[in-house]
Amino acid sequence: MGLVDAHQSGFKRLLQNAAYWQVAAVLVIVCCLVALLGDHGREALKYERLAIENGEYWRLLTGHFAHLGLTHLVLNMAGLVLVWLLVGRCYSSWQWTAIVFVSIAAISGGFWFFDTHMLWYVGLSGVLHGLLLAGALPGLRSYQAESVIICVIVAGKLAWEQLAGPLPGSESVSGGDVVVNAHLFGAIGGVAGAAIFWRSAAGQRSI
What we know:
Elements: H1 3-20, H2 22-36, H3 38-45, E1 47-48, H4 49-53, H5 59-62, H6 70-87, H7 93-113, E2 120-121, H8 125-136, H9 145-164, H10 170-174, H11 180-196, H12 198-201
Antiparallel strand pairs: 1-2
Helix pairs in contact: 2-6, 6-8, 7-8, 7-11, 8-9, 8-11
């Protein structure tokens, strides 16, 4: 292979790798833009039950992109990068986009119909649980070790949160209460998303 061919091949691989990060990059940009709006932006965009009852339906979507503060934002963005490093190659960009919205719908729907006491919520952590499970589940068909480990860890974490509450120290780190049901509903959305694309995702590498 000549020098020009090598450069072209390297550039092509770079573009292919960048394509895997499109959805993650959009999520980071959206969350950072919302954060730049400050407290007023968070108040206008957060999931807030009473406001939604009064017709502010956009909050069902935008609440997942708002955060309590810089620490909360950084933690979720770091989690998003980790999720993408682990399972970002499992789906195409449009499939990941669909899974994001399925997870959001599962969380907001779960809050609305089952957690009627949940007055407000912000954060991407529920969606992250959905994305991680959606990316790991296809690997179970071929018994990929990393997929099995991810699913066991996520299932164990969800069980702990439902039985004992948030993981020790998680609330002090994030700067506010951890809504564990967001993680559960997000995981359910991730499973639903994986089911939708089960055939097309089967056999693809998770890492």
